[in-house]
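Why does residue order matter? Because the sequence determines the fold. Keep that principle in mind as you read this record.
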Amino acid sequence: MRTYLFDLDGTLLDSIDLILESFHHTARVHRRPARSNAHWLKGIGTPLRVQLSQMADSDEELEALLDTYRDYNLEHHDAMAKPYPGIVEVVKTLHQREAKLALVTSKLSRGANRGLRLLGLEDEFPVRVCADDVVQGKPHPEPVFKALAALGAQPSDAVFIGDSDHDIEAGRRAGVETAAVSWGPFAREALEAAGPSRWIESPEELLAI
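Structure:
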């Protein structure tokens, strides 16, 4: 039985504008220097705590930054985020085919569950590995290993589908096949160095893997 591990943001959920605006809002509120979209994009796929630590001078300040980001992100989530065309139907088809499915995301469970609810994919992803479920997030392979264990799946049967080099590296280090999607925020050239096993140009191609 084929196993599909999905990243969330940039793969299932088009939330990139929301994420970027959440970073900019956080910087404004805490009077930190503005940083470009390109700067924040580089970190998408890694834990939020890691990304915001570069703006914090103390642990207490980091917690305040995290609170500001998450409050803004959740407040605007349903208005700004949306599914990528065709991906929800493909996931539902895989579920109907009884494929093993898991979500592997660097979001906390609260945000990940909110995203799946917006997508209408809560039933399709009973296994969810989020930032608060692991010690080390992507690009470390721990989240991938944890998803495989929860599904009772072998690396040789699995493919990790994501939009960032952090997804590809985590999957590669875990020994699973990796699929880089073309509809995320990163150019193909930016992902080539990560060495994905295959490229996915449209969600429907996943049905043939």
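The CA atoms of residues 14 and 82 lie 5 Å apart.
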